[in-house]
Amino acid sequence: MRVRAYAPSHITGFFEICEHLDQRHMGSRGCGFTLQAGVTTEVTVEEGEGISVIINEANVEAPTTRSVVRRLASEYSVEVLSKIDVPIGCGFGASGAGALSTALALSDALSLNLSYNSAAEVAHVAEIENKTGLGDVIAQTHGGMIIRREPGSPGIGKVDKIPVRDVEINHVVLGEISTKDVLGDKRAKRQINLAGKIAIKELLKRPTIQNFMLLSKRFAMDTCLMSDVGVEIVEAVESCGGMASMAMLGEVIFAIGGYEALKEFGSVRTYKIGHYGARLL
Amino acid sequence: MRVRAYAPSHITGFFEICEHLDQRHMGSRGCGFTLQAGVTTEVTVEEGEGISVIINEANVEAPTTRSVVRRLASEYSVEVLSKIDVPIGCGFGASGAGALSTALALSDALSLNLSYNSAAEVAHVAEIENKTGLGDVIAQTHGGMIIRREPGSPGIGKVDKIPVRDVEINHVVLGEISTKDVLGDKRAKRQINLAGKIAIKELLKRPTIQNFMLLSKRFAMDTCLMSDVGVEIVEAVESCGGMASMAMLGEVIFAIGGYEALKEFGSVRTYKIGHYGARLL
After folding, report:
1. Looking at domain A2-161, which of 3.60.15.10, 3.50.50.60, 1.10.760.10, 3.30.230.10 is its CATH number?
2. What ipTM, to 2 d.p.?
3. Window B:85-124, CB contacts with A under 8 Å
């Protein structure tokens, strides 16, 4: 049995960590956007046992996706084949998108008859367990520029959106950041939660894309998550009339406008903001 | 100032009316789907006063859309130009889609800085006030095959989805039904609520597209909303291996498969299920 599903990538601009003993209720408040680029997954389910995960033609560990497979299809032999057209480990929510597309595809392949939220919940819980993300999955079920007002898995967390068009987002990748490492650092967490709480409060007063960009930059600065090079790039973009900040969590600068300025710092890629949530193909 | 927005059409298969003194909390439980066809609206806002609503090149009353304009732009002269590519007054949620696209476009044109849910709430409340719909707006903000688990406007109501692909929906239009008339009939309301409550409970046990079609048909039969011709068409579709029911509320039979059978009863149009919610263009 072979089934395909898609989940969009998701970049968070700022966030607040919301701990909870129940993993379905744990997550984050914050704001981010999905892109018209993401993860296409094909699962093949056969009699037997064993899990193989192949991402962009390489055999990988992909612990979050494996958790999803163990939860939904432990009695089968499962091959997960994902094509990811965004960088991995750089704040594009690739682990969430991989897990979410896998959950949707497996539920369909095995006729588990899970609702959309129930399948997505498995991916959300897998992210929490593996400390690979907090709020990507719920955003990836919606698509658009998503305000995560209350934390939790799809069906539990509460979201709103900033009305947006097909805005072009330029980005430059400088390197990876381990979500696990940042979330394991108590001091960093305190700074994140302080700055995140302020940012979300300010955003709700004026939920516009310009305000989102501004608050994201302030958050990246105030939490010291942005490197010196990052600050330099953001300033260069602003001097050309653009707006920029850093993907949470990855050494990635995303920008509206400022293409020429970004080019000085590396290879620039451009995607439009997406409006689709994850879905079966 | 000229701004464009789009909202998808939405067909409900079954529903339960949920009264509430607060119009934001009033609405319906039920299930339906959006189509890859809907309403594209362009609003033009100028100094002055007066509202004109033009749908498919004809000046019309469009009370729900007018309510939205009065709420958001009472101090301006507003022209609303909507292109609707589904039948009006036939259970495609055209009034909700018109109101929702108008609310999103006006909020942007006037820089009201409303969040997506706040703009959509205006459309939901306008539908309730004008008795033109109960649950279309919240479904139209999501896109897909939407289970309305709890009633209310976007941000208040709770939804889940049935995971679906780009399924083709064939339909035949037999005539209009006034939502206002049905919602004003106490006996009809009792039947709807009894059958609707059962249908939603059954759907949640097995949220699949096949179960949705089956429960929709049962609901249309049990509430006596389906005409004799409707029953005849549904049976003809089923005898060809398809599944069919009636749009709530319109004399429209929608079907998965059964194209040849439908052709015997009128002109058949086909749209795919959509996955986008309403958005700015």
Report:
1. 3.30.230.10
2. 0.95
3. 104, 107-108, 113-119
